[in-house]
Amino acid sequence: MLSQLTRFASVQDVPIDAAEMEVRATFPQLGKYGLDPSVGVAMERLEYTLDVRSDVPREKVVALVETAARYCHAAQSLRVPVPVEGTLRLNGEELIPVSEDG
Fold it and tell me: Residue 81's domain spans which residues?
């Protein structure tokens, strides 16, 4: 999100003096450690606080942040499920595909 914020700040001519982001994720504890196979392991919630310092009018900063959020690759990838495919290579030898189920 910070990369998109700086990119669009330049495009929209919105000077940003500083920007910091605090991100918090919540995971199901039983699933996270494999203690209960019936509990999922995916994040249950992701929250962030974006702290921006700028002298431009509030409306311009709000519009900038909304644009950055809309085009943030990481955030959009979390909002819209995508297939995950993996392959295990051991010492250069391809062994097995790794499924989404592990």
Answer: 2-98
